[in-house]
Design goal:
Radius of gyration: 23 Å
Number of strands: 24
CATH topology of the largest domain: FAD/NAD(P)-binding domain
Number of domains: 2
CATH superfamily of the largest domain: FAD/NAD(P)-binding domain
Mean pLDDT: 93
Distance between the termini: 20 Å
Length: 497
């Protein structure tokens, strides 16, 4: 098949590699000048680091270089993806600096017409891999005109290209997620003042608990994932969550006490209101190196449980008035307030067929839309192991296109999808990234995807991952086995013909 892929991040590159190995003619489009997606040089903000250690944040068949540190800088992740392109000879199928302005289904749903500024071309199948963190989301602030008139400015964390933009300025960071706290640490080194405005406090996990236990042994294992109740409990998970989850709650409660003490949260007045188990409602946030130390030193101020009510001009200078009544200087406002999950290149009528009435994507296995033919999504399963999740989604797509696994009927799949989205919305209080965030149930999603395909890592490797961090390398034989299976099927068809 002739396949177009939109996006050259982890998901787009994994899809290109897997689908090419299965014999497809693939073209990957990306509007940036390099591969990387969120790790592109056009989007890297000061202080950007991975949350995972390098052994868990990689593809199954392409380990991170030994010379890289445990937690990678943004440029190193992008370098890793460039080496992936080189190793699997993907450069010839890349069309960088080429934005897809429209992808419209052909009459009869027999393919897609993909338009770019340089022309249009037909494809048999379209893979959307533009990422669920494609466009920054900004709160609807009051007084933006007043801020502009006073010389203030608003931008997203991903738009902060250099610390020179903040040198000597009074900076307001909006948000308490990882990107906000990462940027706040770097900004505080050169800014006149740095104020973090947090609508709600999230739990942060140190890289090493008590300076000894790497957090990967806590949350990047199957046991760590099983501490949070999944949609359907099976096997050992039933034991963990018996008696009102007494065992799981006790284990998480112990971690909460260690984190609170280690980060001195009580002394700083930064103990979140919700219990530690609430990290299941959103992506866990790794504690930014130096953040709490800077708060203790006074170089970062945190205004908790508050929001920006409005911007105003005061004494000729830009200020932000907070909902708790405080007014702070705001020469530069940097928002780490999440992203929109958009597919702007798809026609409105196609987008409507992808979503429920609340705007959630209805994708079977986070991959397959039920009402739009010849279309799949890769990377719409944001997880603790995003590279591996994206790669296994690509395997599912490859198997599906080759007719290698059988799907339930459409109405059964629709029921599964709607039950899943409803559960996701309920457990995240409506913050499921339009139904695309599978955290913290990353391995559950991968298990379901590979169960459909009928190829998996060895039982021994999966058993080991209950206590040891999940190793993507354990899945390195999945794609070759699929390639062999598809090749054998093609040979049988040729022989029978």
């Amino acid at each position: 098949m002739k396949i177009a892929i939109v996006g050259a991040g982890f998901a787009g590159l994994a899809s290109a590699k897997v689908l090419r190995q299965l014999g497809h003619d693939v073209t990957v489009f990306d509007k940036t000048p390099d591969v990387g997606g969120v790790w592109s040089s056009t989007r890297r903000y000061p202080g950007l680091r991975t949350q995972n250690n390098k052994q868990t944040y990689c593809f199954s068949d392409h380990p991170m270089p030994r010379r890289f540190p445990q937690w990678l800088e943004g440029a190193q992740v992008q370098e890793y993806l460039e080496s992936y392109v080189e190793r699997f000879d993907l450069a010839s199928c890349l069309r960088l600096n080429t934005e897809v302005t429209e992808a419209a289904p052909l009459v009869g749903g027999q393919g897609w017409l993909v338009r770019t500024p340089t022309g249009a071309e037909q494809y048999d199948h379209l893979v959307v891999a533009n990422g669920i963190f494609c466009e920054p989301a900004f709160p609807e602030f009051a007084g933006v005109d007043e801020l502009d008139a006073a010389g203030g400015r608003i931008l997203a964390t991903s738009d902060l290209a250099s610390l020179e933009e903040v040198r000597g300025k009074n900076v307001v960071m909006v948000g308490y997620g990882k990107s906000s706290c990462d940027v706040a640490v770097e900004v505080s080194k050169v800014a006149a003042s740095t104020t973090v405005v947090a609508r709600g406090l999230l739990w942060k996990v140190p890289r090493k608990l008590k300076g000894v236990l790497n957090y990967k042994y806590l949350l990047l294992t199957r046991l760590g994932e099983a501490l949070f109740p999944y949609q359907t409990l099976k096997g050992f998970e039933k034991v963990l969550h018996a008696n009102d989850s007494a065992i799981a709650s006790g284990m998480l409660g112990s971690v909460e006490k260690v984190v609170t003490s280690q980060l001195a949260l009580e002394d700083l007045g930064l103990v979140p209101s919700a219990p530690f188990s609430s990290i299941a409602k959103a992506s866990v946030s790794l504690a930014s190196e130096g953040f709490y130390e800077a708060v203790a030193e006074g170089t970062i101020g945190v205004r908790r449980d508050t929001v920006v009510s409005r911007f105003l001009e005061k004494d000729g200078q830009p200020h932000a008035e907070l909902s708790d009544g405080q007014v702070v200087r705001a020469d530069l406002v940097i928002c780490g307030t999440g992203f929109r999950q958009d597919v702007p290149f798809l026609p409105a009528e196609v987008q409507a067929r992808l979503q429920d009435e609340r705007g959630n994507f209805e994708l079977y296995r986070q991959i397959l839309p039920l009402d739009v033919p010849n279309l799949t999504f890769a990377g719409y399963n944001s997880s603790f192991f995003s590279p591996l999740s994206a790669e296994m989604a690509a395997v599912w797509i490859g198997s599906y296109l080759a007719g290698q696994h059988t799907l339930p009927d459409v109405e059964t799949m629709r029921s599964v999808v709607r039950d899943r989205v409803e559960w996701m919305e309920a457990r995240t209080d409506g913050h499921s990234a339009r139904g695309t965030n599978v955290v913290p149930f990353s391995m559950h999603n991968i298990d379901e995807v590979l169960s459909d395909v009928g190829i998996d890592a060895s039982p021994a490797a999966k058993a080991l991952h209950w206590l040891a961090p999940v190793s993507p390398r354990a899945y390195r034989k999945v794609t070759p086995r699929l390639v062999k299976r598809v090749g054998a099927r093609a040979t049988r068809r040729t022989d029978s013909a």
